[in-house]
UniProtKB/TrEMBL annotation:
It comes from Xenopus laevis. The chain crosses the membrane at residues 37-63. This is Sodium/potassium-transporting ATPase subunit beta. Gene3D superfamilies: 1.20.5.170, Na, k-atpase alpha subunit. GO terms for cellular component: apical plasma membrane; sodium:potassium-exchanging ATPase complex. The gene is atp4b.S.
Length: 295
């Protein structure tokens, strides 16, 4: 390679490059003859076809092992989370503060409920779901795309329905809160007894509570809503609710309220997930008449 370090003029370099691109002596294009180019192109074409084939085959065989009904990798948590409505701002820390004398302060809360509840309208539910009065239990083992879910209708919300009170009690300082347990596919809580909901604040400051469905001690989440078999099997599933009506909460004071769902298979003491099995929030209901001069 003695020639390698030789100084070459620019035109010599250009000539060398030109010969590399097309060498008329050997009929080579870019260092290969036409036949070799055809050969190498076919080689790479075949190579990539086989690579794509192997990739497609492995994806296909993986898909064969997946059920369309149940996700193979569910969230590792086994105990459901609990959420609260109204939650107009979707915040991590839920603060329900309002002044019952000032409708502007509770309008966002009432509006958020009005947006959330229409799916439970009786006529909507009757179209979507079964009334489950025959107590048939759903089994996720029968992978049927048209599995009926059970109705949950606003008449089960008793005095917390919009029909009973268009402000859900916010105006009168007896607000309704709605508790909802998150769905977990194939999860059946309670070991044959319905999970219970219980809300409390320190020193009994929450006052008397009425639960719908339920009584004045506990709300109940009916077992007919379990298990949930996934979106493909139960496209119309709607989460059951428990409405919590506060009948005489302490006014003008910030309360720390905890609503807990209890039942077999539901844990609420996970230090890493404060919303597992329970929901905590701050509640402050003021009753400060707006002075007409202070507009
Ligand atoms: C709120 O209250 C004011 C005065 O009491 C009333 O004029 C207004 O119409 C109310 N707004 C709503 C949305 O109810
Ligand atoms: C429920 O739906 C019916 C008809 O679809 C409607 O007339 C009724 O006002 C609705 N009720 C509520 C509370 O939205
Ligand atoms: C879901 O609801 C629609 C009406 O909204 C109904 O036509 C359909 O049959 C329902 N599907 C199931 C599986 O119940
Ligand atoms: C539930 O549906 C069944 C038939 O599907 C009907 O006979 C029964 O009256 C319904 N019950 C209620 C409470 O609507
Ligand atoms: C609903 O509220 C009314 C008063 O507004 C009361 O008489 C009735 O007992 C309540 N119903 C239930 C089921 O708590
Ligand atoms: C469910 O409750 C029954 C008694 O009612 C008990 O024998 C059984 O062990 C319980 N099952 C589980 C999984 O705890
Ligand atoms: C509700 O739960 C609280 C603790 O969160 C407990 O002190 C209270 O006794 C429970 N109430 C009922 C009726 O079980
Ligand atoms: C309220 O309901 C719970 C659960 O269903 C039950 O254990 C309790 O005895 C009921 N309390 C009253 C006062 O009816």
């Amino acid at each position: 390679m003695a020639t390698f370090n030789e100084k070459k003029t620019c035109s010599q370099r250009m000539e060398n490059f030109g010969r590399f691109v097309w060498n008329p002596d050997t009929s080579e294009f870019m260092g290969r003859t036409f036949a070799k180019w055809v050969y190498i192109s076919l080689y790479y074409a075949a190579f990539y076809v086989i690579m794509v084939g192997i990739f497609a085959l492995s994806i296909y065989s993986l898909m064969q092992t997946l059920s369309p009904y149940v996700p193979d990798y569910q969230d590792e948590l086994k105990s459901p989370g609990v959420t609260l409505r109204p939650d107009p701002y979707g915040d991590e820390v839920i603060e329900l503060f309002y002044n019952m004398a000032d409708n502007k302060t509770y309008l966002p809360l009432v509006t958020s409920l009005c947006e959330f509840l229409p799916v439970y309208n009786k006529s909507v539910q009757e179209k979507m779901n079964a009334n489950c009065s025959d107590h048939t239990r759903i089994s996720c083992a029968h992978q049927n795309e048209n599995t009926k879910s059970c109705q949950f209708t606003t008449d089960m919300l008793g005095n917390c329905s919009w029909e009973h009170d268009h402000t859900f009690g916010y105006k009168s300082g007896k607000p309704c809160l709605f508790i909802k347990m998150n769905r977990i596919i194939n999860f059946v809580p309670g070991n044959k007894t319905a999970p219970l909901v219980n809300c409390s604040a320190e020193n009994g400051e929450l006052g008397d509570v009425q639960y719908y469905p339920g009584n004045d001690t506990y709300g109940t989440i009916g077992l007919q809503y379990f298990p949930y078999c996934g979106k493909k099997m139960q496209p119309n599933y709607t989460n059951p609710l428990v409405a919590v009506k506060l009948l005489n909460p302490t006014l003008n004071k910030e309360l720390s309220v905890v609503c807990k769902v209890s039942g077999h298979g539901i844990t609420s003491d996970n230090p890493h997930d404060p919303y597992e099995g329970k929901v905590s929030f701050k509640l402050k209901i003021e009753n400060k008449p707006l002075s007409s001069s202070a507009n």
